[in-house]
Amino acid sequence: MKESQVLNEETLVQRAIEVLMDTLGPVEAMRFLSLPIKKRVESVKRHQKWQAQLQKEQFFHEVFGKQGE
Question: What are the sequence ranges of the domains in the chain?
Fold first, then answer.
């Protein structure tokens, strides 16, 4: 089994860009590198948004079913 080595960040970035350029070409590689990073909604805010849209009775019915069934 081949022993793996950890690359320093500069080498890692250089090799990754080379792979992107070789695989995608210069235009698509630059397009990929320029894509905006989507911010992840913090979990509490995401949960609060979900709760605000929740229909409580329907949710309880789906989760627990009707009592006595």
Answer: 9-64
Helices (H), the chain: 9-24, 26-33, 43-53, 56-64
Quote the crossing angle between the two packed helices 26-33 and 9-24, to the nearest 10°: 130
Q: What is the pLDDT of residues 4-54, one digit of tens each?
A: 889 999 999 999 999 999 999 999 999 999 999 877 778 888 889 989 999
Helix (H) or strand (E) holding 62: helix 56-64
* Tokens (6 digits) for 15: 């090799």
DSSP class of residue 33?
H
Q: Give the 3-state secondary structure of residue 25.
A: coil
